[in-house]
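Hey, resending since the last one bounced:
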Amino acid sequence: MSLIKLSGKAASVKQITTTVLPNNCYINTTTTFRINNRPLSTTLNINLTEGDQVTAVAEDKPQELAVLAVRNETTGVTHAMPEVKPALNIVTIIFGILTIPLLGVGFWIIYSVFSAYQTQLKQYGYQLEVNRMLA
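The structure tokens again:
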């Protein structure tokens, strides 16, 4: 995944709200806008109006850039995903060790915990890079 940083005036700002009820109860708001005539979209809850000076960090995709963080220079507000630090679940590891005699199920549990932790570490590093680019 390559990241790109764009700065400029927001143009063609549109917010689209999707509501799904009753079983899959959620409300999804997608904001689309352009910076330097490049189309961007995000599901972050941002307050953006035409002509705002913004800086955005996005995943570089062929058609439309997926925004990961936005700083509205006009209002001074930064919108980004919350920073979540990785955590290793010790209780699950102990449970895995205790269940090793049970046909090796414990090995699979321990592998799953470390695999999830590795994924969390990668995501956290990616998140730090996005925040560094926005600063």
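The chain is about 30% helix and 40% strand.

Sorry for the duplicate.
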